[in-house]
Amino acid sequence: MTAERIVIENCSVATVDAAGTEYATGHVVVAGNRIESVGAGPAPEGLEGVVRRIDATGHLLTPGLVNTHHHFYQFLTRGLATDHNLFNWLVTLYPTWARIDEQMTYAGAQGSLGMMARGGVTTAADHHYVFPRGSGDLSGSIIRAASEMGVRFTLARGSMDRGESDGGLPPDFAVETLEGALAATEETVDRYHDASFDAMTQVAVAPCSPFSVSTELMRQGAELARRKGVRLHTHGSETVEEEQFCKELFGMGPTDYFESTGWLGSDVWMAHCIHMNDSDIAAFARTGTGVAHCPSSNARIAAGIARVPDMLAAGVPVGLGVDGTASNESGELHTELRNALLINRLGAHREAALTARQALRLGTYGGAQVLGRADQIGSIEPGKLADLVLWKLDTIAHASIADPVNALVFGAAAPVTLSLVNGKPVVESGRLTMVDEDAIARSTRAEAQRLARIAGLAG
Fold this sequence. Notes:
- The chain is α/β, with parallel strands linked by helices.
- The protein contains 14 helices and 17 strands.
- The mean pLDDT is 95.
């Protein structure tokens, strides 16, 4: 049986392959859910089974963006605690987050996924770690939202077992026991994780952070992940206060603590990693530990500037993350391409910190590396999955920028004409194709208001 083919041609193509191959005018042929061919000029003649042929004049075709860190439920608490550092921000918002339920979590996931998908994200990761008692099937609700949206998805099943009475930040009723967290995480892996090449849903083991979980949860979580053959994710080295906390409680800095609990390795990625010295970076490079760089969130909560150029030079895998929309209200990963470049140029390397093409690589192939899927997604190469984005660059916003990659990264947010996941359109002309955007807007607004009412009543 002949595979159905989609032909995209007459556009600029940035493949983000190992050689950085680009075509000023090129084509891509998709067969089923795979990329069949990519090259200069028009597509080959005589292709069979072509169901759609797209004249993409004035566009840039790239791999789909890969988001490596998020907290979807925070979509319901955007615009709050806008002038706080991380710890004060957490203390302010945890009492509200501790009141989420299944319906709220589903709505927050819809809103977060919708904003990312409209902005070119084809693979998303969500680190969900708040499981209030009696709140329902939160993991299932998040996975359902991603499936309905048509986006490839990794659920980092988070956990916390250090509540206020144990010196942690979240209320006690919003944390789990050690045994409960491990059992629920294993159940989620068994129920939802798909290890196949074209998997739409995968699961990672993801205790929240050193200051909200016990050492035993970190250690046994790592053992669980490796027994199940899934990846590990957590927050690391986000603030100066975290480093002080680790030294006071464990007698060592965050990186040494992570290594002591089994949390460095090529199957691990960590969010933020802002306050890392040369030794920390060398340890990540030596072990292949990945980093989810979240420049907008890092700036929003005044956490600092991560040493991304030094990480890349050392060989550390680095991808981009939106982070929760309570610390990055735009919720769009394509803005992180620009912010990663600009914010890193404020650091020690100044104008040599990152180029536009390095920023695009962070948001595509780098993210695929961090999620352990670089052989499947993240670049436009024959045999890889057809996760592609077509960016419109011929409007007034980009018309005078000759280099299309510079236009995408340095310029205004480019409209998405088409986004394919597994060869299927999830965005057409800037609109989601598989769900009702207006209904999601109404639902997220209603659930945000309901959460605010409940949190207010809870005092």
